[in-house]
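Problem 12. The chain below contains 346 residues. Write out its predicted structure in token notation.
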Amino acid sequence: MTTSRQKKRKTKTRRKLLYTILIISMVLFSGVIVFATNLSLQTKNAINKIYEPLEKDTNPTEEAENKIESAKAEDSAFTILLAGIENEEKAKYGRADVLILATINPKTEKISLVSIPRDSRVYVPDLGYQTKINHSYAFGGINYTINTLEEILDIPIDYYVSTDFQGFEDIVDTVGGVDVDVPFTFSAQLTGSLKWKKYTEGPMFLNGNEALAYVRMRKKDPQGDAGRNIRQKQVIQEIINKATSISNIANIDDMIKDVGNNVKTNIPSSDYFGLIKTYQNIKSSPIEQLQLEGVDTMIRGTSYFLIDEESLEEVKKQLQLNLDDFGQNAQSEIKSKTVSDLTIGQ
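Solution.
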């Protein structure tokens, strides 16, 4: 039989074990809090270096302020523009070589992506005339481009992330490269070294320099700009998936520092982790790939892409549906222009 002394000894042993477990748990928990706090502060400082608000962010109207507050509400749908900028020497802004708009709805767990062809002939409200969409950036930077896209698509654009070619390479390298499914075999010239890289049909791993050439090539693509847009969205999706993975979030402040000189965004540090959490919750959902149809044409010696009216209306409808109630009110919030004014040559 167990003696009273043995029982007391066992009780003391259990208590010591419980105390030890409790102390270890508290230490680990405290460590997590310290790590998270430190990470948050470092990330906030890093994000502040790439933060560049839009004109409408710094001087919002009462209506715009209400929309901003609505967009920040939990589970609210929002839009984000990804812009790849081709910088030229002595140019103030460069040109928008890549424009991809995403609508993200946490409630329906749906993401829609649409690429805007760089040669699209559109009405630029800040200029008062029609020109290529990539020229809107050249004349007035990201503000002109966003104002133009809001007019064309009849939806508000909440956030943007812009990067030049070097920034794109840095982003890809910082997340550890990307895996892509090459649709057909082709060769493309790499920037910097000017060496030729062969891309073979099927799965391939690409570093930043290789990924840039992969998304820029269009002349050898049987689908032209449409094929290039598909490859761009393929790489962008892979970058976002890797950047929001658990392994990379721990290094997010270093990641932002790596690309800080070449990336700009109006995403405030207070919203950053919320957006990451939102994407993590829905990134396994299928992404709706929208396509703007149209034709290539020459106008007064300049090549343009004329967007098909019916295609534009269908893309607008799908984007607005994905924004749910916010999108349903977009047409009344943004002054409409006729499709012919926006897309057809004068």
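Discussion. The CA atoms of residues 187 and 197 lie 5 Å apart. Students who got a different answer should revisit the alignment rule from Section 12.3.
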